[in-house]
Amino acid sequence: MCEEIHNHTHHDGNRLIVEPQQSLLSNNDHLSGHIRKRLDSLGIRGINLMGSPGSGKTALLETLIDQYPGDDLAELAVLEGDLATNRDADRILAKGVKAQQITTGSACHLSASLVAEALIGVSLEGVKTLFIENVGNLVCPSKFALGTHMNLVAVSIPEGDDKPIKYPVMIRVADVVVLTKADLLPHFDFNLERCRQEIHEINHHAQVLVTSAKKGDGISELWQALLK
Amino acid sequence: MHEFSIVSSLLDLVEADVRKHEAKAATRIVVRIGEMSGVVAELLTEAFHVCKRGTLAEQAELVVEKQEVLISCGCGYKGPIKDRRFICPVCGTADVEATAGEEMILQQLEMEVE
After folding, report:
1. Average pLDDT over residues B17-42
2. Are the CB atoms for A131 and A77 separated by under 8 Å?
3. Torsion angles phi and psi, residue B102, rounded to 5
4. From the CB of residue A89, how many other CB atoms can be counted at a distance below 10 Å?
5. Which of A114, A116, B15, B100 is a Cys-bridge partner for B70, taking CB atoms 3.0 to 4.6 Å apart?
6. Are the beta carbons of A49 and A133 closer than 8 angstroms?
7. Other CB atoms within 10 A of residue A16 CB
8. Residue A5 scores a pLDDT above 50
9. Could you give the residue ranges of the DSSP H alpha helices within A51-167?
10. CATH number of A65's domain
C-alpha cells in the first residue's frame, strides 16, 4: 500500500520515495547566483569566454585590452582558467591588466566554486568588466554557470564552419559568437554565410561577430556588444 | 568528461536528501537527461558507478530517462525538432522556445528507511 504523506513523498513499507525535480547542477547554480549578486553590487559586468583550445580566446582578450574604449585599464580584470600553466594570466598581466590564474588540474571546465575562490585573490575595486576565460573546451563549460552576465563563445576560422552545428549545446548558451582569426579566411574553405545561418538555426538570440585579433578587426563592434 | 562533476553534484543532492529524511540509504535514483543537455547518459552511468562507492548511494540503482528536445512556436506548433536545429518544422522560423530536452533533473529518489 502506498500512502501519500504530503506532496511528492510516498511511503511503501520501508521505502520512502521523493520527487525532488531539481537540477543536477543546482549547487553550482546556487553559488553562481551569489557571485552574480556580488558582481551586481559592485557594478561589474562579468563575461564568460568559452571556446576550444586554440580558438584564440587569450589573443582576443589581448586585443580587447588594446582597444578598450574606456579610460583606464584598471577597469578591467581577467580570471584565466587553465589546466596547468600560468601562461595565459602572464600574457594578460603583460598588458597591464590585473589577472588571476585558476589552474583546474584535470577539470575540463570552470565551476562557480573555482571562480568564487579565485575572486578572493583579486581586488575588484574600480573594476567595471570582469572577463573569465574558461578552460579550452567546446562541450563541458557550457552548463556550469559562473555568475557572469554574458556568454561569449569563440570559434576560429581554421576550426571549420561546421563547428557550431557539431557543438550546438555550447552555441545554445552563447549571447555572442565570435568567429576569430578572420585574417585566415582567404586560406580556408570556410563558408561564413552557412556558419552564420547554422548559428541562427541553433540559437536565434546569439549575435555573430567576425574578428581578427591579429589585424584588430571587429574588436570595436565586439566591445559595443559586450557593453550593451 | 564533465559527467564526473555532474555525478558528484548528483551524489551531493542525493546524500542531502537521504539525511534530510533520516533514511538509511538511497536505493533507486531516477534522473531525466535532455538529449541536448550536453551530458551523455552512458558516461553519466559509468561515472555514477565509479563515484557512488563510499556514499549513501553505494547500493543504489541509477535510472536515466532520456528526454527529446521539444519546442513551442508562435504559429501554434508544439513538438520535436529535426537535426538539432531549433527551427519550427511548420512555419520555418528560428524564433522558437525550447520547452524540453536541455535539462538534467533529479526526478525521483527512493530511499530505505527503518
Report:
1. 95
2. yes
3. -115, 5
4. 22
5. B100
6. yes
7. 22
8. no
9. 57-66, 87-94, 112-120, 163-166
10. 3.40.50.300
Min Cα separation A94/chain B (Å): 32
Instruction: Look up the pTM and report it.
Output: 0.93
Residue A141 located in a structural domain = yes
Question: Of B55, B78, B42, B40, whose CA–CA distance to B9 is shortest?
Answer: B55
Domain tally, chain A: 1
- What's the pLDDT score for residue A6? 46
What are A177-202's pLDDT values in tens digits? 999 999 999 999 999 999 999 999 99
**Is residue A128 situated within a structural domain?**
yes
Number of Cα atoms under 13 Å in the Cβ half of residue B80: 8
Residue A44 confidence (pLDDT) above 50: yes
ipTM exceeds 0.85: yes
Residue A10 within any structural domain of the chain: no
Q: Tens of pLDDT along A103-122?
A: 888 788 999 999 999 999 89
Q: What is the pLDDT of residue B1?
A: 66
Residue A214 to residue B8: CA distance in whole angstroms: 41
A198: chain B residues, CB-CB within 8 Å: 85
Considering CB atoms only, which of A22, A143, A198 is closest to B106? A22
Determine contact: B88 vs chain A, CB below 8 A.
Answer: no
Neighbour-count burial of B43, counting CB atoms closer than 10 A to its CB (0-12 exposed, 13-18 middle, 19+ buried)? middle
Domains and CATH numbers, chain B: 3-112 (3.30.2320.80)
Q: What is the pLDDT confidence band of residue B8, given thresholds at 50, 70 and 90?
A: very high
In a domain, A19, yes or no: no
Among A55-69, A73-87, A132-146, A209-223, the least confident range: A73-87
Q: Which domain, by its residues, includes A134? A: 29-227
Q: Which chain B residues are Cβ-neighbours of A23 within 8 angstroms?
A: 103-106
